[in-house]
Every structure is written in C-alpha cells, then in structure tokens.
Specification:
Order of helices and strands: HHEEHHHHHHHHH
Radius of gyration: 22 Å
Shape: elongated
Strand content: under 5%
Distance between the termini: 23 Å
Strand order of the largest sheet: 1-2
Number of strands: 2
Largest sheet: 2 strands, parallel
Helix content: 55-70%
Number of helices: 11
Length: 225
C-alpha cells in the first residue's frame, strides 16, 4: 500500500520499509486525532489488520472456491454453503440500502446458523469454523452500513500500477519507483475528483491556463467530504 500526499512528499513504500509501514502510518494518523471513525476493510492481509477492521466478503467466499472436494458429496456441500453465503451477502447489500438497528440481531443469528453448520467434509467444516471466529469483522457493516462489503474498489485502484509494472518490468532506482507511485497516485486521485490530470499537471508546472488554478487536492477532498 502506498500513501501519496498532494505534494508528493509523504511516501510509504511497503516493499522498502516492510510490512509494518501500514501500522505505522495508521498509528501516526490516529496520533494526530484524524479519521477516528474510519473502518479499514481488507482481504485479511496482516499489514492491513489495523484499527477498526472489517473483512472483505468476496475474499472470504473465495476461500470456499479454493477447496478441493474429493467426492460428489463434498462438492454438493460446498455448493450448498456457497449458496447460503451468497444469499446472506445479498441480504447484507439490501441492509446497506436501508439499515435498521433492529434487524442486526437477526443477521447475527443467521450468520451463526450458516457458519456453525457441519457437513462432514473436514476441510469445509474447519473453514466454516475459522470464518465463524471472524464474525465481528465480517458483520462490521451492521454497525457501519456506509462501508463496502468488499475491497474491489481499492484493488481496481491498484490495477494500473500492476499493469505498468508488468509492462515496464519495474523501475531501475528508488527515485524511479517514487516518481511512478506519485504520478499514478495523483492520476487516480484526479480521476476520482473529476479533474483533468493534464490540467492539474499544467497548473503545477505553470503551463496552460493559469487563470483557472487547481487548488490542492487535499482541499478539494475535504470540501467534498
């Protein structure tokens, strides 16, 4: 995970600093009293398990897909559980549209019924038990209906970075890596704010129409928040 400030100064490169960078970054944010109500939704990678943490349902369900049934009965058990999970997931999506605290207990009971099932397929039963232990993180949306149920959006943000890395084969120096991360981060931020990236660069470099300056991206984000 890389954090990019508007001026390109605050760079945290996980490959260089290590997997503790995210925890350090989050600790610094909280130390300054920022983002106190933020929920971190992740695919359960250890470095992102910080703060008020929620699990991605898509990644959780993907664990069911990875099971290797040896018999027709085991395969039917997986199909049954996956169907129950996706039905529950759809119910959570509906809850997000019209959240009601009174409905939360019913969701928790339904979760318990699904993930307490025992099918006789050892690997599946162990996985259900494992996911049941993460109940609070998987049901964080009941307390915070504004959070996503999955990490697809953040993974899409990284897609251009991964594509660039595959095409170019990486960078030759730390400065090149920093420059790449800054430009991709700024481009994605401009896209999300509906700004022209070329207009933004032209403003910062003093090229083009200086009569319409682009304010700092951080100011635009705060204003829209």
């Amino acid at each position: 995970m890389t954090h990019l400030a508007d001026n390109g100064v605050d760079i945290f490169d996980r490959q260089e600093i290590g997997t503790h960078a995210e925890a350090g970054l989050w600790g610094s944010i909280r130390h300054h009293g920022l983002m106190g109500n933020t929920v971190i939704v992740s695919d359960d990678a250890g470095q992102f398990r910080v703060g008020n943490h929620a699990l991605c349902w898509v990644h959780a369900e993907r664990l069911l897909q990875k099971l290797m049934p040896a018999t027709a009965k085991e395969e039917r058990s997986i199909v049954l559980i996956r169907d129950l999970v996706w039905r529950f997931y759809k119910a959570l999506k509906a809850y997000k549209q019209n959240p009601s605290p009174r409905a939360a207990p019913a969701f928790r009971r339904r979760f318990d019924r699904i993930f307490s099932l025992r099918t006789g397929y050892g690997a599946l039963d162990k996985l259900l038990e494992r996911l049941h232990r993460r109940k609070n993180e998987l049901l964080k949306v009941l307390e915070h209906p504004d959070i996503p149920l999955h990490t697809n959006a953040s993974e899409n943000d990284l897609r251009s970075f991964v594509t660039k890395r595959k095409i170019s084969g990486g960078t030759m120096s730390r400065d090149g890596r920093v420059a790449r991360d800054i430009m991709l981060g700024l481009m994605k931020t401009c896209q999300k704010l509906g700004l022209s990236f070329y207009h933004y660069l032209g403003d910062r470099l003093g090229i083009g129409n200086v009569d319409q300056p682009v304010p700092p991206l951080s100011a635009i984000i705060l204003a829209r928040a």
